[in-house]
Structure formats: structure tokens, C-alpha cells
Design a protein that fits this description.
With 311 residues, this protein is of the alpha+beta class. The chain folds into 2 domains: 146 residues, Rossmann fold, CATH 3.40.50; 139 residues, Tumour Suppressor Smad4. Helices cover 23% and strands 30% of the residues. The strands form 3 sheets. The chain has a 6-stranded mixed sheet. The chain has a 6-stranded antiparallel sheet with strand order 7-6-17-14-9-10, with no helix packed on it. The protein has a 6-stranded antiparallel sheet with strand order 13-12-11-8-15-16, with helices on one face. Strand 3, helix 5 and strand 4 form a beta-alpha-beta unit. Helix 3 runs parallel beside helix 6.
């Protein structure tokens, strides 16, 4: 493991921010005054103080912590003009940078990483470590200053995360950083698809299939796996294979051969839609593509890994 790499000028790092709830709601309600937003919250029945559920205090405190994180970035040497909303980062913008940071939780990790090729380094940060799990983030307010100092001096190494390449009717769509879901979009519709993998061809009836990368194995996939096995199915982020699992298979007790397993490099899963309503291919729960009857989806490990900065 190489612990010294090319120093990175902090003024050249591009940062993709997730909006705080305050910022999302100000945009939603077209309100530019915090006091007016608080009045809006009160009208919606959100309490001012309540430690057991969402409250106005908790919302405001999270907003302030996220502002503090941004201020720390600027103090450390990141240019204010290089801090933009995560959804505004494009592949063209990212391609011009040596490194790009996501600042939010796991949603920010996914949406920002979607814009990165295999030459751009990725810095996954959690802008509010108290309110956001950020399972796929390494940096937050407690360590970001030191992390940036080391990145500036080249005292870091590169960790590689696999991504999932997805094709719809032989046309590539957005690759996944965390997970692909294939099935009916509406939960109470039955997902039906023909699945082909490693010589097995099987018609499945269920609530859909999840294919998760190691970073994505701590989320939705793990919830399904834990419910079935009473233990975690998550794997370290640097593993070079994906895991898949069939959700709510029907009929109860039917032993599908492809109910769960591992997808490794060079292997491919093929799904032919038999869905009756609105089938979908969901990429990290961000991008969605139609998967109606007769549509064919192919999932494999992508050739290019995501390169993540570790200190």
C-alpha cells in the first residue's frame, strides 16, 4: 500500500454539497428567511423541541453543523467557488479536477461518484456526522482538517471500489456505486422476471432483485440479508465482487436457485422483464429506467473502479 502520492492543491478540489433540510425546504417553499421557515414548520405540526423525533431544534442544529463543515473546508484551503450543489456536478466539471469531494451522506457519495471516471480521485465526506450515518464516508468535521493537510502533502493512499455496469437492451445506462434494484417500481405489484446466471435460467416471482457492491452491502441489501439469516451480510468496501439477493420471494418457502449469491468479475446476470405494470432498473435509488415486459437488463462488474482517497 503506497502511503505517498502526488500532492493535491486544495484550491483545485471540487466539492459537491448535499443541501441541508433547511436549504431543501427553503427551495421547496420558496422561502428565503429562516424565521418564516420555522413558522412553516410549526404550521405542519413539527414540534420546536422533541429529542425522540424530528423537531425544529434538530433540523436547525443539523443545518448549522453542515454550515460549519463548509466553513472548515474554506479555512483549510478549498476555494469557495469550487463548492457547489452535488446535483450540479457534471462529468465535464469533474474531469478537469484531480480530486472531487462529496459532502453530505451516502446520497451525496452516490450522486457525485456517478460523475467520476477512473482518473479522478474521490473524497467521500459526511457534512453532519451526528445526524447522518454516512456509511460510505470517511471524513467529517472531526478529521477533515487533518485529512486535507495530508491530501495537500500527498500523504494518502488509493482505495478501489468496484462499480456495477448496467445495460438496458444492450445500451449502457448509469453505472451504480452502491446498488441496482430490478423489479416493479410500485411495491404492491408483483415483480416477475427471468434471471440467467452461470448457466441457470430461472423465472422468479418476488418483490425484486437487489445487486449490491461492497459499499452498498451495508444498506438495503443488508436489511434483507439480516432478516433472512439473522446476521449481517455486509462485506468490506475493497472486496472486488458484488452480492445479490431476491426480496420477498413467492410462493413462501420456494427454494429459488438464484435467491442470493455473489457476482464476480467476468460474470454477468441477465434479467428479462415479465412485469405487468411499471418495471424499473433503479441505480442507487437515484436514476430509474423503464423495465417493462420484454426489456432485457444485464449487470456485471465494471472494468473501471472508483478510486477513493484514504489517509
Amino acid at each position: 500500500m503506497q502511503n505517498h502520492n502526488q500532492p493535491i492543491n486544495l484550491s483545485e478540489i471540487l466539492v459537491g454539497l448535499k443541501r441541508s433540510k433547511v436549504e431543501w425546504d427553503m427551495r421547496k417553499y420558496r422561502i428565503d428567511d429562516l424565521n418564516k421557515l420555522i413558522e412553516q414548520y410549526k404550521q405542519e405540526g413539527i414540534p420546536l423541541h422533541d429529542n425522540n423525533k424530528i423537531s425544529i431544534d434538530i433540523i436547525i442544529q443539523s443545518h448549522e453543523r453542515q454550515k460549519e463543515f463548509r466553513e472548515e473546508l474554506i479555512k483549510s484551503g478549498v476555494k469557495k467557488d469550487n463548492i457547489i450543489w452535488a446535483e450540479d456536478i457534471t462529468s465535464q466539471l469533474a474531469r478537469k479536477r484531480k480530486a472531487v469531494m462529496s459532502a453530505g451522506g451516502d446520497w451525496a457519495v452516490d450522486i457525485v461518484s456517478h460523475k467520476l471516471d477512473n482518473s479522478t480521485l474521490f473524497i467521500p465526506a459526511n457534512s453532519d456526522y451526528k445526524a447522518s450515518v454516512g456509511a460510505n464516508t470517511y471524513y467529517n468535521l472531526t478529521n477533515i482538517r487533518e485529512a486535507l493537510r495530508k491530501i495537500k502533502s500527498g500523504e494518502y493512499y488509493i482505495e478501489e471500489w468496484i462499480r456495477l455496469e448496467v445495460q438496458r437492451n444492450r445500451i449502457k445506462v448509469q453505472s451504480a456505486t452502491s446498488a441496482v434494484f430490478i423489479g416493479e417500481r410500485i411495491r404492491d405489484d408483483m415483480s416477475k422476471q427471468l434471471v440467467e446466471f452461470k448457466g441457470i435460467i430461472e423465472k422468479t416471482t418476488c418483490s425484486g432483485m437487489i445487486i449490491a457492491t461492497p459499499p452498498g452491502s451495508t444498506g438495503w441489501y443488508d436489511s434483507v440479508y439480516y432478516d433472512r439469516h439473522k446476521k449481517s451480510g455486509a462485506v468490506p468496501k475493497t472486496e472486488q465482487y458484488a452480492k445479490f439477493i431476491l426480496t420477498e420471494p413467492y410462493p413462501p418457502g420456494h427454494d429459488y436457485k438464484l435467491k442470493e449469491g455473489e457476482l464476480r468479475k467476468g460474470e454477468e446476470m441477465i434479467f428479462t422483464s415479465l412485469n405487468d405494470n411499471v418495471g424499473q432498473i433503479s441505480i442507487d435509488s437515484i436514476r430509474h429506467y423503464r423495465f417493462n415486459r420484454g426489456t432485457v437488463a444485464r449487470v456485471r462488474i465494471a472494468d473501471a473502479n472508483l478510486k477513493v482517497i484514504r489517509i
